[in-house]
């Protein structure tokens, strides 16, 4: 059986789309369709059900993917290692995507040494769900996700936990009765403006739910779709907010920001490093993953 047919089959099976698979394997959609048809003829069984949106694998396809997948992936890894040689694991530009704040303040610095090992990096910033959609079709090689990715085409490993902290500039912090805040919760904050990166206040909602057991009731006074902008506005005294501790660690250390509350169990969110199923042992993916997993605990 032709190995290229199996590689195309696995791309279709894992992505659930002929179009996405075509982008991933670098062929036209008509070629991918013809390859799947050829494989079905060779096996004498239907592998996919064509649906209005994508394809659905049959039980025969699931069985073939389970049997052939590890072997095809291993051959692809061997081939990449052969091309990479002994000097560098990187044979092509690597496309990495993730949230703007973490990428800019932590990830790029963590990967800097790999540039001298031959890594050519192409970075895309954005929201997790939009970025994860680009993994199965090959637009990205790795995505840092703010939640656990789902779907059979994507594998992931926990990267780090980001801790959230309720902060304000010292001038505003002085207006908060800390005892009342601990006793009565957000009622002690009702006169202070909220700063958020989205109208629906996702990080603030998480903090309120975890620490206070309730939902925020006031609308944000300032909305900035970048946590670095939220940080700047908060340091300037525009209002209070909830930020990942890694993002405001310097401001907390210098006193430019003050934590309004230090709960015994702070709210956290686990970040994941996601990649396409079958690529985890590729030398380039493995090198970036190892570097990030080594550096992430210090974030």
Question: Which homologous superfamily in CATH is the superfamily of the largest domain?
Answer: Periplasmic binding protein-like II
Mean pLDDT: 91
Number of strands: 11
Low-confidence stretches: none
How many domains? The number is 3
The proportion of residues forming helix, as a percent range, comes to 40-55%
For this structure, the quaternary state is: single chain
Strand content: 15-25%
Q: Tell me, what's the shape?
A: elongated
What does this structure look like?
- It is a single chain.
- The model has no long low-confidence stretch (mean pLDDT 91).
- The protein has helices at 3-15, 18-25, 29-43, 59-84, 100-115, 128-132, 170-173, 178-184, 202-212, 227-235, 245-254, 283-295, and strands at residues 48-50, 55-57, 94-98, 121-125, 142-145, 154-168, 195-196, 222-223, 241-244, 258-259, 268-276.
- Strands 3, 4, 5, 6, 9, 10 and 11 form a 7-stranded mixed beta sheet that branches. It has a two-stranded antiparallel ribbon with strand order 1-2. The chain has a two-stranded parallel sheet with strand order 7-8.
- The chain has 299 residues and is an alpha/beta fold.
- It is built from 12 helices and 11 strands.
- Helix 1 (3-15) crosses helix 2 (18-25).
- Helices cover 46% and strands 18% of the residues.
- It starts with a helix and ends with a helix.
- The protein has 3 domains: 3-84, Arc Repressor Mutant, subunit A, CATH 1.10.10; 94-161 and 270-298, Periplasmic binding protein-like II (D-Maltodextrin-Binding Protein, domain 2), CATH 3.40.190.10; 162-267, D-Maltodextrin-Binding Protein, domain 2 (3-Layer(aba) Sandwich), CATH 3.40.190.
- Helix 9 (202-212) links the parallel strand 7 and strand 8 (222-223).
């Amino acid at each position: 059986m032709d190995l290229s047919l199996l590689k195309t089959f696995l791309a279709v099976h894992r992505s659930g789309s002929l179009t996405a698979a075509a982008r991933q394997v670098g062929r036209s959609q008509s070629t991918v369709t013809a390859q799947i048809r050829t494989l079905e003829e060779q096996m004498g069984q239907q592998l996919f059900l064509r649906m209005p949106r994508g394809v659905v694998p049959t039980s025969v396809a699931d069985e073939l993917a389970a049997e052939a997948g590890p072997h095809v992936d291993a051959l692809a890894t061997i081939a990449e290692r052969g091309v990479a040689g002994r000097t560098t694991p990187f044979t092509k530009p690597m496309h990495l995507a993730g949230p703007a704040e973490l990428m800019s303040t932590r990830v790029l610095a963590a990967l800097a040494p790999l540039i001298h090992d031959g890594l050519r990096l192409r970075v895309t910033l954005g929201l997790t769900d939009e970025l994860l959609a680009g993994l199965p079709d090959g637009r990205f090689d790795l995505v840092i996700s703010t939640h656990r990715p789902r779907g059979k085409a994507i594998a992931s490993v926990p990267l780090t936990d980001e801790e959230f902290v309720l902060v304000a500039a010292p001038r505003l912090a002085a207006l908060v009765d800390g005892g009342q805040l601990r006793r009565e919760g957000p009622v002690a904050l009702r006169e202070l403006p909220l700063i958020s990166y989205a109208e629906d206040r996702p990080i603030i909602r998480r903090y309120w739910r975890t620490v206070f057991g309730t939902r925020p009731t006031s609308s944000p006074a300032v909305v900035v779709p970048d946590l670095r902008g939220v940080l700047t506005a908060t340091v300037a005294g525009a209002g209070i907010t909830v930020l990942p501790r890694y993002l405001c660690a310097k401001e907390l250390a210098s006193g430019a920001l003050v934590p309004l509350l230090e709960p015994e169990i702070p709210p956290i969110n686990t970040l994941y490093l996601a990649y396409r199923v079958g690529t985890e042992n590729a030398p380039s993916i493995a090198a970036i993953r190892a570097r990030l997993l080594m550096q992430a605990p210090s974030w």
